[in-house]
């Protein structure tokens, strides 16, 4: 059974930083495409950044470029999203995700991922 558990969200002020973690169990995420997505109220879930199983970042959303960094700790089977210079428009529930197919290419849409964390709320005040 695959489980993904996020942590690290919270309420911060604009310009602050947050570090989100996602601990995976039931599979070795270093063999799968993984990603971070977010969903704001009333909006569709959108990709933030996705990584192929090789550890190479396949794509980063424009809003995240230069501010968010995605890394993978293979020893801890953990995904990390470092978010700097946060803005009020970054307010959303953030989700980590893992693809179903081993050694797959990281897709940009939620439908490309089979396993999801429960989400962690990030709220940025102005």
Task: Explain what this protein looks like in three dimensions.
It contains no helices and 11 strands. The radius of gyration is 13 Å and the shape is globular. The model has no long low-confidence stretch (mean pLDDT 96). A hairpin with a 6-residue loop joins strand 4 and strand 5. The strands form 2 sheets. Strands 2, 4, 5, 6, 9, 10 and 11 form a 7-stranded mixed β-sheet that branches. The termini are far apart. It is an all-beta fold.
List the helices and strands and how they pair.
Blueprint: E1 3-7, E2 10-13, E3 18-25, E4 32-39, E5 46-51, E6 57-60, E7 68-73, E8 78-83, E9 92-102, E10 115-116, E11 120-125
Parallel strand pairs: 2-11
Antiparallel strand pairs: 1-3, 3-8, 4-5, 4-9, 5-6, 7-8, 9-10, 9-11
Descriptive keywords:
globular, single chain, seven-stranded mixed β-sheet, four-stranded antiparallel β-sheet, 126 residues, mainly beta
Secondary-structure-derived class: mainly beta
- As an assembly, this protein is single chain
Residue windows where pLDDT falls under 50 for at least 5 positions: none
Major sheet: 7 strands, mixed
* C-alpha Rg (nearest Å): 13 Å
Distance between the termini: 40 Å
Helix and strand element order: EEEEEEEEEEE
Q: What is the overall number of helices?
A: 0
- Taken as a percent bin, the fraction of beta residues is over 45%
General form = globular
Helicity level? under 10%
């Amino acid at each position: 059974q695959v489980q993904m558990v996020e942590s690290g969200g919270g309420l911060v002020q604009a310009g602050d930083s947050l570090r989100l973690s996602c601990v995976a169990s039931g599979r070795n995420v270093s063999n799968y495409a993984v990603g971070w997505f977010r969903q704001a109220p009333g909006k569709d879930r959108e990709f933030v950044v996705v990584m192929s199983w090789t550890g190479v970042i396949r794509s980063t959303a424009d809003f995240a470029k230069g501010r968010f960094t995605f890394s993978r700790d293979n020893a801890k089977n953990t995904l990390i999203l470092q978010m700097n210079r946060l803005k009020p428009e970054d307010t959303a529930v953030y989700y980590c995700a893992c693809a179903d197919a081993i050694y797959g290419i990281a897709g940009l849409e939620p439908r490309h991922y089979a396993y999801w964390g429960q989400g962690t709320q990030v709220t940025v005040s102005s």
